[in-house]
């Protein structure tokens, strides 16, 4: 079946690293994504990783993929107040006409 | 190059009325996807269309909802006889080929409120 799970909330101190975790169930996923959504706004694609990769780094963002455990994480280094948002993990199922399956989102809040 | 354009951004309808949401894909994109986001939830796939064809509508409610993507003009998501439970954000996305999913781009969303 197709399911993406993530915890609902995460609170971190400004300047610390944030780690948002996600698990998925479909082993045929091709791409795994992280999207950011600010209140009342659309989705911003932050980064994505192809399913045959283990890690991808892009400036303050590091994505780790453990395909065996079907676990994906997003690490945000030096978290800033502008990082406050909801972060969605998602996977694409290539066999299903490229539709993307989203998790319920993790709300990241930053405390001073 | 404009992104995926959705309108209206905000729409208020009374119960029983019809809601029409429009999506203009990015230039050169012939594949359109509609997603729904209920309050405090993630996005749920509704329908995938190419020009004049519905490819996958496995996420569409069986009644009252329909979608089209005509040869000319935007894609339309139509909700007839709206109910309070239809209140949500509706997101459209487009891609040029329908493969290589890293090229899917989302619009800013249309927020429907049913009163």
What does this structure look like?
The complex is a heterodimer of chains A (112) and B (115). Chain A is mainly β. Chain A has strands at residues 4-6, 9-13, 18-24, 29-37, 43-50, 55-58, 61-66, 71-76, 85-93, 100-102, 106-111. The radius of gyration of chain A is 13 Å and the shape is globular. The mean pLDDT of chain A is 89. In chain B, the strands form two sheets. In chain B, strands 2, 4, 5, 6, 9, 10 and 11 form a seven-stranded mixed sheet that branches. In chain B, strands 1-3-8-7 form a four-stranded antiparallel sheet, with no helix packed on it. The radius of gyration of chain B is 13 Å and the shape is globular. Chain B has strands at 5-7, 10-13, 19-24, 31-37, 43-50, 53-56, 65-68, 75-79, 88-95, 105-106, 110-114. Chain B is mainly beta and 115 residues long. Chain B starts with a strand and ends with a strand. Chains A and B meet through strand 4, strand 5, strand 9 and strand 10 of A and strand 4, strand 5, strand 9 and strand 10 of B.
């Amino acid at each position: 079946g197709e399911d993406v799970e993530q915890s609902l909330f995460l609170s971190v101190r400004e300047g610390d690293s944030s780690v948002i975790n996600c698990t998925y169930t479909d082993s045929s996923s091709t791409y795994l994504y992280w999207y950011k959504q600010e209140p009342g706004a659309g989705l911003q694609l932050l980064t994505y990783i192809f399913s045959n990769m283990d890690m991808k780094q892009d400036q303050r963002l590091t994505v780790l993929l453990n395909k065996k455990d079907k676990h994906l994480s997003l690490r945000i280094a030096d978290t800033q107040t502008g990082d406050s948002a909801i972060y969605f993990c998602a996977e694409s199922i290539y066999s299903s006409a490229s539709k993307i399956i989203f998790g319920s989102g993790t709300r990241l809040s930053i405390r001073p | 190059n404009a992104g995926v354009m959705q309108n209206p951004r905000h729409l208020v309808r009374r119960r029983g009325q019809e809601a029409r949401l429009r999506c203009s894909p990015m230039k050169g994109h012939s594949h359109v996807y509609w997603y729904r986001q209920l309050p405090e939830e993630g996005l749920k796939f509704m329908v995938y269309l190419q020009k004049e064809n519905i490819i996958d509508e496995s996420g569409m409610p069986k009644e009252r909802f329909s979608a089209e993507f005509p040869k000319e003009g935007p894609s339309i998501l139509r909700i007839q006889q709206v109910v309070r439970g239809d209140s949500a954000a509706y997101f459209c996305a487009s891609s040029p080929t329908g493969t290589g999913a890293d090229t899917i781009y989302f619009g800013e969303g249309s927020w429907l409120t049913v009163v």
